[in-house]
Specification:
The structure holds two protein chains of two kinds. Chain A is about 85% helix and about 0% strand. Chain A is mostly helical. Chain B is mainly alpha-helical. In chain B, helix 4 packs across helix 5. Classes of the chains: A mainly alpha, B mainly alpha.
């Protein structure tokens, strides 16, 4: 039996404490299908086997605690490692750039990576810690995002309580589709910018050649 | 052959095409795996009898009877735990449940040897 099957068996047998533990462990970074567990929790709540409100409270709490452990690992473990490596390989300016970008975009990225782009969540925890994103702000965006995620998935499980596996597979696929769309937009924007830069550089070069030829003729 | 600028453009174009492919493939996959009324969930060892009955729209008491459990009180154990308690392989238990589900559904009703015990579709 796989670890997922063991955890599901534990969830069916022992209920909410297991859901809390799964949400916590998965948020630290262990690859577990937490969305499936949340949907299943919603389905079990619909049948009266779990309490809907407590499922949301405990799963959110577990996920928030796990995220903050990940942030701590990034801040006090990863940061030291990256600083040491960047001083050896000369990447200090890039580290400063990354920190500046995190300050600017961090809130939105943290919030969205909790529910819409959930496969990126653990990495965002680590990088937020490594870039020393302010912890109170991290906690705020993290808590908001996790509550949205848990409410959405447990409610979906409640609504489609007889189709847990199909719903989980569909939501998992949709998450990756959204990641694909966002990557396409970002890369497309970069492509357009680079194309314009190349065209203007070529135009400048052609103008310089023409003016040089005109000067040599006169 | 390629200038540095053109090489960068080419890499960006390839990455862009890859991400478009990712988005398209996962969207199509999502559409295919969407919950469908006519598609049954495969029975898994973590599922309990009330969930299976709910998913397959059959009376829980019918399934309980098929695997030798009392209809009441509601048994919330996963079928893996039930199989362990009954000292039989979980696959065998799943097969028994699938057979019971097949007979609980309307077209198979007359052939069913199990007596109806709940107010479900099998009751005439």
């Amino acid at each position: 039996m796989s670890i997922t099957a063991y955890l599901f068996t534990a969830l069916t047998a022992y209920g909410l404490p297991v859901l809390f533990g799964i949400a916590l462990i998965a948020s630290v970074g262990l690859p577990l299908p937490t969305s499936l567990f949340l949907i299943a929790a919603g389905a079990f709540a619909e049948q009266g086997d779990l309490n809907f409100t407590w499922a949301i409270v405990l799963a959110s709490s577990g996920a928030i605690i796990g995220d903050n452990i990940g942030y701590g690992i990034g801040r006090w473990g990863g940061r030291a490692l990256v600083t040491r490596l960047s001083s050896v390989f000369g990447g200090k300016p890039r580290l400063a750039d990354a920190a500046a970008a995190a300050q600017q975009w961090g809130g939105a990225v943290i919030f969205l990576s909790r529910w819409l782009l959930s496969p990126l969540g653990s990495w965002v925890n680590l990088t937020s810690g490594m870039t020393t994103y302010p912890w109170p702000r991290f906690l705020l965006w993290d808590a908001l995002g996790e509550v949205v995620w848990v409410i959405l998935y447990v409610t979906f499980g409640w609504m489609f309580s007889n189709r847990v596996q199909a719903l989980s597979a569909m939501l998992g696929d949709l998450t990756w589709a959204v990641i694909g769309v966002i990557a396409t937009l970002a890369l497309g924007w970069q492509l357009i910018k680079s194309f314009r830069a190349t065209r203007s550089a070529e135009g400048d070069a052609a103008t310089t050649v023409c003016s040089n030829e005109a000067v040599s003729r006169t | 052959m390629f200038s540095a600028q053109n090489r960068k453009l080419l890499v960006l174009l390839l990455a862009c095409m890859l991400s478009v492919a990712l988005a398209v493939v996962f969207t199509l996959h999502a559409l295919r795996s969407a919950p469908h009324p006519g598609r049954d969930e495969p029975i898994q060892p973590w599922m309990n009898v009330p969930y299976i009955a709910h998913s397959y729209h059959v009376p829980p008491a019918f399934l309980c009877q098929a695997i030798g459990l009392p209809a009441a009180p509601r048994d919330r154990r996963p079928i893996a735990a039930i199989a362990r308690a009954q000292q039989r392989p979980v696959d065998e238990l799943i097969a028994t449940l699938q057979n019971a589900i097949m007979h609980a559904r309307t077209p198979y009703l007359p052939a069913c040897a199990l007596a109806p015990t709940d107010t479900g579709r099998h009751t005439p």
